[in-house]
Amino acid sequence: MALFQMGDEVLVPAPYWVSYPEQIGLAEATPVLVHAREQNGFKLTAAELDAAVTPRTKAVILNYPCNPTGACYTRAELAELAEVCLARGLWVVSDEIYEKLIYDGRSFTSIAALGEQIKARTVVVNGLSKSYSMTGWRVGYAAGPREIIDAMGKIQSHSTSNATSIAQWAGVEALRSAGADVVRMVAEFERRRDQILAGLRALPGVTCSRPEGAFYAFPNVGAYFGRRAGDRVIDTALDLAAYLLEEARVAVVPGEAFGAPANIRLSYAAPTEQIAEGMERMAGALKKLA
Ligand SMILES: *Cc1c(COP(=O)(O)O)cnc(C)c1O
To answer: How far is the centre of ligand 1, averaged over its atoms, from the C-alpha of 156 (Å)?
Structure first.
């Protein structure tokens, strides 16, 4: 709301987190989806970003590691995107909520860290929900140019007012002393990532890019569209998600919600036994589709 208004276009790389188009709509601006390709690991290229810019484009929303794909941009990829943003005069809203949940020894780079020029055009948003498992405490934060943050403070003071002081102090404690817990949690998530990825890739017809961060896998299940179980026809990811829920009691989120209708999202923020059981049930249900 501090950055966008009616007539502004805001680029949203797809697959995207469900809330971005709605949040842009709340500011009366127009979300413009830019489809990142599965072959590119669901990462938007600088050329794709550049091609989507119009005279009305105000900003691009980046989310890395990504919910729902787990994709995370490298420093070199971010540098190319930053170059386009600066050349085209775009703002960047950089959602870094999964910055600490990153695997395979990768290191995280914020686009705002690439130089003074891009830093001056970036608003970083982050929070304690994911890295510190504090989803219910409702503490988030933003960093950016002073005039933008000042404007955000004014809007917030008339809407939600504040995060409770109790939750803020709990957040301070998490940031100060939970580092070792986060390291342990990330190691466990990495094992679960390997487990769910192996399970998904063993399913006939399913492809899945390797999640580099966050705690979601986003397999392509398009091979099952057009198949049936009895008189039930599976034509969409929504159909498949409903089938898996009813037939296997496995909850997945259909890709339509993220702008990727051939995929489904699975969360691996669950114990390994549950993941194993879920994968087994899914395999059984998919086998019944002819
Ligand atoms: C979970 C999440 C957030 C933050 O959600 P809160 O629960 O409101 O802290 C922000 N962005 C993405 C992509 C998320 O997945």
So the answer is: 18
